Amino acid sequence: MYDFAVSDSMGNHYVVTYNSYWPLSEQSVEDIKVEKK
User: Fold this and answer.
1) Nearest 5 degrees, angle CA 6-CA 25-CA 13?
2) What's the whole-model pTM score?
């Protein structure tokens, strides 16, 4: 698993976790978990 933090245009912060065996792409959307922090 790989975690990274992102911010959206509203200034909300998220931690994104996805299976590192898959690229961050449309094919892996089902593997992405986004948690609002």
Assistant:
1) 10
2) 0.29
